[in-house]
Amino acid sequence: MPHVDRIAEPWGTRTPYGPGEPWPVRVDSFLEAGVRAQDVDRWVQSATILHSNGDGLDIAVKDGRVVGVRGRAEDRVNHGRLGPKDLYGWQAVNAPDRLVRPLVRQNGRLVETDWDTAMERVAGRARQLLDEQGPSAIGFYTTGQLFLEEYYTLAVIAHGGIGTSHLDGNTRLCTATAAAALKESFGSDGQPGSYTDVDHADVIALYGHNVAETQTVLWTRILDRLAGPNPPALVCVDPRETPVARAATVHLANRPGTNVALMNGLLHEIIANGWIDERYLRDHVVGFEELQKRVHDFPVEEAARICDVPPDALREAARLIGTARRLLSTVLQGFYQAHQATAAAVQVNNIHLVRGMLGRPGCGVLQMNGQPTAQNTRECGADGDLPGFRNWSNDTHVRDLARVWNVDPMDIPHYAPPTHAMQMFRYAEEGSIRFLYVTGTNPAVSLPELERIRSILAQDRLFLVVQDIFLSETAQLADVVLPAATWAEKTGTFTNADRTVHLSDKAVEPPGEARPDLDIFLDLAHRLDLRDKDGAPLVKWGDAEGAFEAWKECSRGRPCDYSGLSYARLRGSGGIQWPCDADRPGGTERLYAEGRFWSAPDYCEAYGRDLLTGAPLSDTEYKALNPDGKAIIKAAEYVPPHEQAGGEFPFWLTTGRTLYHFHTRTKTARAPQLQRAAPEPWVEMSPADASRDGFAEGDLLEIATARGSVRARLRITEMRDGLVFLPFHYGYWDLPGGCGPGAGSGRAANELTITDWDPVSKQPLFKTAAARVSLVEVCPGTPSLAPTTTASRPVSAEVPATAGGAEAQAEESLS
Amino acid sequence: MNLDLVIRELHRSENELAHVLLRMSERHKTDHETYHVARDLAAWCHDHVRALAEAGKDYGLDLDPSPAGDPSMVERLRDKAAEWLGRRPEPGLLLLADFRHLYLAASEVSLDWELLAQAAQGAKQRDLLELARRCHPQTLRQLRWANARLKESAPQALAS
Ligand code: SF4
Fold first, then answer.
1. SS (H, E, C) A3-71
2. Are A362 and A201 in contact (CB under 8 A)?
3. Residue A170 CA: which ligand 1 atom is closest?
4. Distance of CA A216 to CAs A46, B81, B102, Å?
5. For residue A448, what pLDDT band results from cuts at 50, 70 and 90?
6. What pLDDT shows up at residue B70?
7. Is B135 in CB contact (< 8 Å) with chain A?
8. Which pLDDT value is given to residue B89?
9. What is the pLDDT of residues A545-569, one digit of tens each?
10. Residue A739's pLDDT band (boundaries 50, 70, 90)?
């Protein structure tokens, strides 16, 4: 079987295929040194958790330990392939520094204790605050990395039991805009498209989506199409020269903060040339006239001027998109974490609506997720929505949820939209949230303006609970730390960005006293003695499968209907896409076939918001706008970004995730191959900017904004002039400092980012800040340690190529 | 014809609304969404002020096209106070009070646009009607924003 260094070759070997053909199988695997496939005791079914692609895999178990992974050939998502993060990242499960006992703060220090003591502290403090202040004192901040069963249980506890509306996930930083944009256009969350659209598309447009690094296996699928007959044309919108940009037919490197201007320019050209489906618009869409009016006065030249891209490139992109027969669009952080996030993402949906390109093979929109289970936080209501895509401003929906939970509708807070994460931190700052329960996430590194976040988390008056698998920066600030089990140590389901549900079975025991998140939540519900309106326990299940069965009932009849699924059906399957019910037992590959949407006023998940102010529409307004449940086109005016580069801070700073690390590196930095590939943060600049300022590859620079400063070594790479890029989520846990920069210089990109968010999706802006750059130390001849295989590819030929060597040899079997 | 009266009044009330928005933004710098959105919305008022000054010329008015200046020094000092207050629970109440004030100010402007539109229709003044058609929806959006923010801030500010 051929071996490939998948650090040096992140996407592996090509298996070319043509339009409409099935994507060939290629099974990737990686086992611990010295272990051969025949030595493995058991293979346990699961899927990937270090990105949102949802690749099916099997976990190799030997002597009660995880010893490797292998892609599942029959999985609909990956056809056996795995990305570098999947191949190597599992090693973190076996890391020696896992949390194995609960910790409580005593005299300022975290000390080990037993579960009973720790949980009594948590429940005791919650009870005390409920008596003193009521549910407004309690907030929950979760992740995009737990399982569906856990989110649902958490939502029942928070919304139905405690009665707080302060429950959100870190999916707020990651893909809240995906959900918001889908709700605006289609009345409900849920991706219209499917990954199989890659097999059929003749044009693929990627908006702020560096898929090559964020979803390597999906990019592998695109690369295989590009290598085959009749390849699709790619349109890429990204200020950096990413691997996607290098493969693109047209690359638009627009100025940060101008996505809405760019989209309006594209729409102008598409409409002006009549590349629209008038029949589809008439039968299935409302709002087209307004869009027509809005973009009419927005000629391509004007858009190109604002965006600083060549007008001809913009025209060419519009032509490709406007004349595509099968158009697939994907969107991610370059739009979601940027100025006017939702307004821009909605314009991508608008392109598909004016072109009538939905619900058919090759005609998909994927408003992407970043994390593996982001979709589940949204479905289950653990992220500031109500479970089952119910509409918080529709009383019938709230009553229906109260029926499912057997509680009084008044007990479910729905007087206003559920509190979003940034607002929860604001309430904690003001002192009205006094109890914050953080599960599986690390706000002390991932939120904007870290100095502020650290000062909020470190307050004495805030009782901070952190449930995680490692002692993260945030956990170091906690009052109680609860050791959790992770993937492979617990059972549950999760759903990827194209609605594919996978089951992940327990393969091994968690280390020490660590417990599955679900068990911890059940314990909390029990200690708080949460009851339904008949006095029975509110949470009526005791294990994962029970939670799943309860969730099936909650989702029945809603867009994300799971009622046709079961653990038994998922076991052995190649993944099943929701909705899946009695009528659609095999699941549903594409939504909105024949222009049927979930947007009827009495059914839709949301009535929508004003794209500039974020103010929600009322039911009356929505009914007037869309009485017949059609898709909704929403026009948007471009407004300049709130922070502009110039003067003292002449550069645009943008940040992002890169190929070899994930989230706050708690897992990827504990996988040696991944850690060596990108061991420390770097800063990217264009050749022109670097040479003007006299900086050379590898020089140590300081990057500063109005919020703070960080230091990093320079990588000179092709990208827009006037831009600096920092990879985000490098924190401090693996430095002697601990949970912050201390007296030394910072390295987390979020020391620099601005506290500002999209008023519609409430997603923070990580992609635009005004910065200055200065030289700290000249380092001749020592290049930065940035990877050479990705967007950070150096312009200089002298930088040694990133490779994983002997320890990174993974197997590939081509059939 | 008393169209000049309505234009003059709108010019005043739009200026006032811009001022309320900017002051609000300065006062609630630590409430980041309020800070930024209020500034974006003040830009609409400034645009309306300019347009009204232009339109006023035909009715013998000489109105200042440039909006009344940024919040004064005194208010900048107060803004420091808001940052300090940002660490105490009271800003929730202050925010509520300010949104209530904004709502009332925006309602006044909205009423004036309605009056102008009615008068313009009566007097068959197409340009003025067009102006009201362009600007009034933005005032309504400002109003809805104030209303929405009141609704969502009230529970935490009043019930904790
Ligand atoms: S790295 Fe951050 S933004 Fe990217 S997927 Fe993870 S949580 Fe989302």
1. EEECCCCCCCCCCCCCCCCCCCCEEEEEECCCCCHHHCCEEEEEECCCCCCCCEEEEEEECCEEEEEEE
2. yes
3. 7
4. 18, 49, 49
5. very high
6. 52
7. no
8. 53
9. 999 999 999 999 999 999 999 999 9
10. confident
A194 lines ligand 1 (CB under 6 A): no
Chain B contact for A756, CB < 8 A?
yes
Q: Which residues of B74-109 are buried (b: 16+ CB within 10 A; e: fewer)?
A: ebeeebeebeebbeeeebbebbbebbeebbebbbbb
What angle separates helix A450-457 from helix A421-430, to the nearest 10 degrees?
60
| Closest Cβ opposite residue A613 in set B37, B89, B156 | B37
Q: What is the pLDDT of residue B88?
A: 55
Is the N-terminal amide bond of A759 cis, ω within 30° of 0?
Answer: no
Q: Is A740 left (phi over 0), alpha (psi -120 to 50) or beta?
A: beta
| Whole-number Cα distances in Å, A447 to A422, A435, A738, B2 | 9, 18, 17, 55
Beta-carbon separation of B87 and A432 below 8 A: no
Query: For tokens 């940034």, what's the residue?
Result: A422
Q: Which residues of A touch B87 (CB under 8 A)?
A: 429-431
Distances in Å between the Cα of A648 and the Cα atoms of A246, A258, A644 are 33, 21, 11
| pLDDT higher than 50, residue B77 | no
Distance in angstroms (rounded) separating the CA atoms of residues A103 and A112? 4
Q: How close, in Å, is residue B79 to chain A by CA atoms?
A: 16
* The token pair that represents A773 in the structure block: 């750059």
Q: Amino acid identity, residue A517?
A: D
Query: What is d(CA A258, CA B12) in angstroms, rounded to the nearest whole number?
Result: 33
| Sign of the four-CA dihedral A243, A249, A254, A256 | negative
The pLDDT assigned to A707 comes to 93
Cα–chain center distance at A795: 30
Instruction: Give the residue from chain B lying closest to A760, CA to CA.
Output: B33
Residue A187 identity: G
Between CA A689 and CA A711 the distance in angstroms is 18
Q: Which CATH superfamily is domain B3-62+71-159 in?
A: Ferritin, core subunit, four-helix bundle (1.20.1260.10)
The β-bridge partners of A24 are: none
Measured from the Cβ of residue A360, the count of other Cβ atoms closer than 10 Å reads 16
Cα–ligand 1 centroid distance for A662 (angstroms): 7
In the chain, the amino acid numbered A243 is: P
A330: helix, strand or coil: strand
Please state whether the predicted TM-score (pTM) of the whole model is above 0.90.
Answer: yes
A288: closest CA among A340, A235, A352? A352
Above 0.85 for ipTM, yes or no? yes
Tens digits of residue pLDDT in A764-802: 999 989 999 999 999 888 999 999 999 999 999 899 999
Radius of gyration of chain B (CA): 17
Strands (E) in A364-434, as ranges, are: 364-367
Is the C-beta atom of A215 inside 6 A of ligand 1?
A: no
**Closest residue (by CA) to atom 1 of ligand 1?**
A663
Amino acid at A39: D
Which of A431, A615, A756 is the closest to B88 by Cβ? Answer: A431
CA-to-CA dists, residue B90 to A462, A527, B79, B86, angstroms: 17, 33, 15, 8
Shortest Cα distance from A4 to chain B (angstroms)?
49
Going by C-alpha positions, the residue among A489, A487, A498, A493 that lies closest to residue A566 is A493
| Token reading at A555 | 């989702």
Q: What is the pLDDT of residue B81?
A: 46
| Cα A638 to chain centroid, rounded | 25
